[in-house]
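Model: You mentioned two targets. I'll fold them one after the other.
Researcher: Yes, keep them separate.
Model: Target one:
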Amino acid sequence: MRGNILDQTSKVLSFIFKKKRDTMIFSSLKVASFGGFLLKENIMTLSFAPRDSHKSQIQFALERGIPAFLLMLGTRRLPFPAQSFDFVHCSRCLIPFTAYNGSYLIEVDRLLRPGGYLIISGPPVRWKKQEKEWDELQVMAGALCYKLMTVDGNTAIWKKPAEASCLPNQNEFGLDLCSTDDDPDEAWYFKLKKCVGKVSMVEEIAIGSIQRWPDRLSKPSARVSLINNGANLFEIDSQKWVRRVSYYKKSLGVKLGTTHIRNVMDMNAFLGGFAAAIVSDPVWVMNVVPARKPLTLGVIYDRGLIGVYHDWCEPFSTYPRTYDLIHADAIDSLINDPISGTSRCDLFDVMLEMDRILRPEGTAVIRGSPDVINKAAQVAQSVRWNAQVHDSEPESGSTEKILVATKTFWKLPLTSQ
């Protein structure tokens, strides 16, 4: 089993295992016990929660070694590609799905893979004094042609149709398809829509059509064909990162594959080749696709991996000291405008954010041109990292250098009064 999921209970677990499918779950977070249980079953669950009265529940989840992300459903799309999660799970998350013309349920529909499952446990499902909300939720799910599979106590499970959207149809919410100008994969500072996006390749990326784990990791999905020369790039990228990871471990002493590293962030993931190359190690990888680069994150989810869109000229949505290893390929491309080539922010600011995210004694692996890596080494020294600059793999030539750094424990000296 392998896939992408969002969180839930024992009733849901029995349903998941009965289906025997590769699964990726997107889940609301209650200290991530649901995601922690599924992780050992080789089911990848990305749990999320805002910073609310629970304070640091995301940080607690990451300390447990469980994938989690600081996030809330508000006025913008969540930073994930369309049709990426096999299950979306909400446990007492109190999201008013039918409010604002159903914008929140439409966003869930955008994220859910064709043939996937929506699981809601708690309000408003058969909840006292929320009968109206429960009725509206059923009506709206029906307008999207979701099939109500079961209602057990306060847990309801719907199945999304595996074929193209049944809209437009007559419904009291006025739901309709978005225009052809709308790209459902656009998700960085993109406002929520009150229409349902049209998705290409519905049948090819539906549950049951996507390849099973572990084949899906190494074979290009249908979405690769949307990239120019995609299948060839996929193969080249996969082989390249197998060689590079071997070099990291054998020649640079990076402790991948050991208990020192439980979670990894790949700041420039492209097609997820780095994460795929370390899939046999006891780690999970947060694949980050820069928002100004090609939207390849859907391919990463098709591989059974997880990730988010982000702009590295802004802070990343996580607590301090939460990742064991941060990997940054072509770090200069994260701060330069892809069209003009000019810098949008400073290398120092990006590395300072890396220092915030990295645990003490965590590792940073940074790749770039010799000039950029020399600058990165100076920044590393200024933030008190122990850093060494290495030559890249022989097949990479002399166009790149690699900085391997360890974040140290340190504290400000006491000042005399």
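Model: Target two:
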Amino acid sequence: METASAHNGTRFYVMAVTPTRLYSFTGIGSLDAIFTSYVDCTVHFMELPGEIPNSELHFFIQQRRAVHFAWLSGAGIYHGDLTFGAQHCSPNGDENFVENKALLDYSKFSEGGEGVKPTSLAISELLLIGNKVKVVNRISEQIVEELYFDQTSDAVSRGIIGLCSDALTGLFYTYDQNSIFQVSVNDEGRDMWKMYLDLKEYAAALASCRDALQRDQVYLVQAEAAFVAKEFLRAASFYAKMNYVSSFEEISLKFISIGEQVCRRKILNVGGDY
């Protein structure tokens, strides 16, 4: 459950799962009033085929706010982003606060054949998935790491039982019948800007950049796409934001070769470091 301030009170957002459905509820007032209101209106839910005995719903908390969710369902891992306090709600106050939804099929992180359903999961910027703990990038849906645990001869593991996270500290833990392990996920967002760039989600790519050189790479891709599309003024505006990747002379020659002197003057006026 999350809350957000609204002009006429506090808006509540609630998510809950059964083995086959994920429900979302929202409304203004008390929780009792919100659930009562659904007697006469449509309840938002996502239903997926298949059942799983260990259906789980997890959230990634950032600055004490849930920003991503992941549901371990029979059909796969259904995950997405959460947006609270949006203005695009219907007259009765109802709204869908889930965005960028996707279903991650279990076959994508199993060794051939039908995907084995995990026993548990946890979510950060990545997904941590048992039985063996596999770290999966939510954006690319690729396994980026597999974790192995040191086990003594008198504590032979029969497999991971579950995963859990501490939202306050950002630490992750997994456990078998004998031991509890702390899972270290270091610098998990280091390559996210590349993932977003490949998807042409430029705003997200820029927000994930760590330095000016990475931002230049994002501006360069946008500039070259605009140049190819003959949107020369737009291309010039992106080139003007770059500091390291291309020199002023290289960029100027591109525009001079096609006679776009206006764009060249735009770079001169905007590109401070040039």
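Researcher: Noted. Anything on target two?
Model: Helices lie at 31-37, 192-198, 202-208, 212-228, 232-239, 248-256, 261-270.
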